[in-house]
Structure prediction request, 223 residues.
Amino acid sequence: MPAPDDFSRELLGPILRLKTAFQNPTHLMRRIGALTLATSQKAFREQRLGDLGWATRYPFQQAPFLNIAGVVSDFSAGRNAPKPNRFSNTPALVDEGMRGGLWGSLSTRTIGPFISETGSAKSYAATHQHGGTSRQPITNQVKEKIKRWLWTERGGRRVLRSGRNRGTYANMLTPLLHKRVLTTRIFPRPFLGITDELEQKLLRATKQWFDERQRGSGGSVEI
Prediction:
């Protein structure tokens, strides 16, 4: 049977190690941030956050589809024609994959030893997370590019590679020629949050971190 001093050391050792670890749990915060970031990135791939499914682009628009706000963005940027993905209603919130846009802007960081922050620095991130409206200026450049994309110099409708003329698209875009601002309803598409899967991963990571500290180990955790 161990002596009282030996017994006290065996009992207090893990507690003291945890006390020391809690003074700077930065490693745990980094694990939490990595897990949360992975969940947010998964939302863009699966077009849902856990059980919260995302609406498609312009969910009430009938075929043929055209992302009107995307077209305005393209023409504002100087393009002479809309990007190919402007003619598809999925995937939502994905323009250039992880190279740019909202998906590519996701990041995580630790702020001090007790806070892990995950999110996007994009000004419009909260609008897409919670829903709202966006406002885009309809400049003279945009109007001119709309005209050139829709009609020939003689006023005929240009033909797409598929063989269809741009009559339906003209019906969608012509009203913009008489506006200064395009206001678009943004449906909520949450990409930040604690899903059931993430909750279980956080619990496992935290338990493993506790176990490592009680053993006096600083090993890595599987995420």
